[in-house]
Design goal:
- By secondary structure, the chain is of the alpha/beta class.
- The protein is built from 7 helices and 11 strands.
- It has helices spanning 30-47, 69-81, 97-102, 105-109, 112-120, 170-179, 193-201, and strands at residues 4-7, 13-17, 22-23, 57-63, 84-91, 126-130, 133-139, 151-156, 180-188, 205-210, 217-222.
- The termini are far apart.
Length: 224
């Protein structure tokens, strides 16, 4: 399937799939979207919730590791706030080395050391990217996730329901719910009603919150 590197509205790059007319990140701004959805409404929200004990390890699962942008931003934030983050990124189809070289996140965020370290980590192995950020990249399908009561925060960054509806089902969200600890938080850019209903049906408490540039709403779900 053909993939092209494009520039989004905030100047950061993303990967475009012409056959699907779908992108890895918002065309309104890849970095802006990631910071708003995952860092602000996911990680930062969890750190102010009852589920977070100060100085404890925060366990994060990303559904759709993709370009590594969400992991990159989280690693930077972990260092800035002295958070202890253990990050697992799940991806069925890792991007190529050539595509990685064409992305401009290191330039935009003025940090090539962390970004390179993230992508130099071997798949399926635990890796210390920095003193505040450990990473394990797992290549598998999302339906193969069987973790139980493990994660504090889930970044649900799968391709949209229009092109991959099978990733937005009750079965998938049931595995997400089971993978989370009590008081855990799941965030996604998607705000479609069927995704919200699927989350609610498996036990999540779900709210619409303000979306990133170009989107009115996004969803945040909590396991009470």
């Amino acid at each position: 399937m053909e993939r092209k590197i494009i520039i989004t509205d905030d100047g950061s790059t993303t990967i475009h799939i012409p056959e699907w007319n779908e992108q890895y990140h918002s065309t309104h701004g890849a970095i802006q979207e990631a910071e708003h959805v995952y860092l602000e409404h996911g990680l930062a929200f969890f750190c102010t919730s009852e589920g977070y004990a100060k100085d404890s390890e925060i366990s994060i699962l990303e559904i759709g590791f993709g370009t590594g942008l969400n992991a990159f931003l989280t690693a930077i934030k972990a260092e800035a706030l002295n958070l202890n983050c253990n990050y697992v990124g799940v991806e069925g189809f890792p991007i190529s080395k050539e595509e990685l070289k064409a992305l401009n996140y290191s330039e935009a965020l003025k940090d090539d050391v962390v970004f390179d370290a993230i992508h130099e980590c071997d798949w399926e192995k635990d890796c210390m990217v920095s003193k505040n950020f450990s990473l394990k990249k797992e290549q598998k399908q999302f339906s193969e996730i069987t973790d139980k009561n493990k994660f504090d925060v889930i970044y649900f960054d799968a391709f949209g329901p229009r092109v991959q509806p099978e990733l937005w089902t009750e079965a998938i969200f049931k595995s997400m719910y089971e993978a989370m600890k009590p008081n855990g938080v799941l965030v996604t850019y998607c705000a479609q009603g069927h995704a919200r209903r699927a989350m609610i049906s498996v036990g999540f408490t779900v709210e619409k919150v303000k979306g990133p540039p170009g989107k009115r709403h996004m969803l945040r779900a909590v396991k009470l």
